[in-house]
Amino acid sequence: MKNTKKNIIPVIAVLVLIVIIILFMLLGRLIEKYTPSKEHQELSEYYGLASDDSVALIFNNEVLSVQGRLIDGNVYLDFKTVHDKINSRFFWDANENKLLYTTATDLISADAESTTYYVTKDARTLDHTIVKADASTAYIAIDFVKQYSDFDYTVYDQPNRVVLTNQWGDYNTAPVKKSTELRYQGGIKSPILADLAKGTVLTVLEPDETWTKVMTEDGIIGYVKTKALGSTSTATRTSGYTAEEFSHIKKDFSINLGWHQVTNSSANANIANVLSNTKGLNVISPTWFYLKDTNGGIGSLASSDYVNYCHQNNIEVWALVSNFGAKDQGLENPDTTQVLTYSSRRESLINNLISAAIQYKLDGINVDFESLDPSIGDSYIQFIRELSLKCANNGIVLSIDNYTPTSYTAFYNRSEQAVFADYVILMGYDEHYAGSEEAGSVASIGFVNQGVADTLQSVPADQLILGMPFYTRVWSETPVSDDGAAVSTTEDTSDSDTLYELDCYSAGMKEVQNLISTNGAVPVWSDTDGQYYVEYINGGVTYKIWVEDATSLEEKLKVMQSNQLAGGAFWKLGLEDPAVWDTIIKYIN
């Protein structure tokens, strides 16, 4: 019995020891769990700075993934950041290593690696390089960007960083009630980014019951315990930037413009006959100029006699320049990209246009550049900016033709066009076109209404001209068999499963009326389309026409009038029934 007790005592001692060890372990874990971490994260690591010349960018309370550079003690921002976040009016020509910026009156230019820049022709200098360029991008001196942009910035070191903002107005702040830590994430185990002294004022980004997301004045974003913050108050950030005022050449009359398609010089001699069929026309736009080569050369069909005759009849001439007119001259259309993406070629094109406008005493230039690649949207807009300066200097009206807005034409940047051009023309037609998957109207009233409403989101009404069609499309549905072979016209094709080959061609108003009369068709009014619809069968082929006439045109003119637009434009002269002018002059005086 005594031996048994002696054997139990060591066991109990071991068990007690084990319990004590477990208790100490649990206590250690509890202490570890609830003891705040004292680990500090290096700010260079926090910002992800890869080298000594890297500069972290904190823009509108967010650390950007892209970084700036510190070169010879000056901060530089990469072009994409400048363009996308600060000022989209900066333009970088990677082909000729040239930085451009367009103001209301001047073209600012700076070559890479130069301390000199030009305000039009006036040379100015900085004490450091304006643009640094490498194989992938350009870096612009931040103080140069600031000259033309509405933002504020402050540079800090250790590590290198810049705090930038272009958000003006009220924002929330809160002071630190007692010394605390700013941590990378919410939680006491998260690394410390900064030690905050009592009274430090923080920008409150995301308030929370336990951990609040904040930013320090010098651009460190993290979390503090909410109970360590004092009462939230409102601060106001104001801009000292004075925005430029852009002026436009505005006519004191509603625009009544007709496009006159001219494909050869001899057609100019017909101008008297063309005008005799119109009423109230006050602007004519002959299709005279087109890109001829990739160096900015233009082809011209211009005529002084034509201009003189129009002026004698109180009609202004806004000559059209296109990027597809060479085909009419038996030439290949040059690559528009090659013209617009090189500054020297854009300049040649602009100088050629202005020279022709002066030579022929033109009142305006109408730009009709279509089917552009989205990748050159910025280059196209830069062309418009640069052209606008020289047009304004010579008293020449600049108007720009545009598709109805869609997501895939957003790169035409209608809002920026409206800043620089005098008038923006909405081509309110080609709702359905050759190549459409189904037959339909060229310009239903719903399509026109929507196009105007969408364009007015970017363009002021007194700069917007509504383009309307003098033409429609005659659609044909020819029955075919499963293998694509034509079906005999004697076969019954009324079955809804019958396959059709869809085709169409453009036709003027008189031609359509002749087709309706010849085929004994009966037009039916469509409230949905705001026009008459005709359908008939000839030789087993079904023809469908959404008719453009004085009645459909009046519906579109009502849209123009109700939205108080600058006027109307019509494609194209010669396709109209002369009677439509009586309708037009009721709405355009």
TrEMBL record:
<dbReference type="InterPro" id="IPR001223">
    <property type="entry name" value="Glyco_hydro18_cat"/>
</dbReference>
<dbReference type="InterPro" id="IPR003646">
    <property type="entry name" value="SH3-like_bac-type"/>
</dbReference>
<feature type="domain" description="GH18">
    <location>
        <begin position="253"/>
        <end position="589"/>
    </location>
</feature>
<dbReference type="GO" id="GO:0016787">
    <property type="term" value="F:hydrolase activity"/>
</dbReference>
<dbReference type="InterPro" id="IPR011583">
    <property type="entry name" value="Chitinase_II/V-like_cat"/>
</dbReference>
<keyword id="KW-1133">Transmembrane helix</keyword>
<dbReference type="GO" id="GO:0008061">
    <property type="term" value="F:chitin binding"/>
</dbReference>
<feature type="transmembrane region" description="Helical">
    <location>
        <begin position="7"/>
        <end position="31"/>
    </location>
</feature>
<keyword id="KW-0378">Hydrolase</keyword>
<dbReference type="Pfam" id="PF07833">
    <property type="entry name" value="Cu_amine_oxidN1"/>
</dbReference>
<protein>
    <submittedName>
        <fullName>Glycosyl hydrolase family 18</fullName>
    </submittedName>
</protein>
<dbReference type="Pfam" id="PF00704">
    <property type="entry name" value="Glyco_hydro_18"/>
</dbReference>
<keyword id="KW-0472">Membrane</keyword>
<dbReference type="InterPro" id="IPR012854">
    <property type="entry name" value="Cu_amine_oxidase-like_N"/>
</dbReference>
<dbReference type="GO" id="GO:0005975">
    <property type="term" value="P:carbohydrate metabolic process"/>
</dbReference>
<dbReference type="InterPro" id="IPR029070">
    <property type="entry name" value="Chitinase_insertion_sf"/>
</dbReference>
<keyword id="KW-0812">Transmembrane</keyword>
<dbReference type="InterPro" id="IPR017853">
    <property type="entry name" value="GH"/>
</dbReference>
<feature type="domain" description="SH3b">
    <location>
        <begin position="171"/>
        <end position="233"/>
    </location>
</feature>
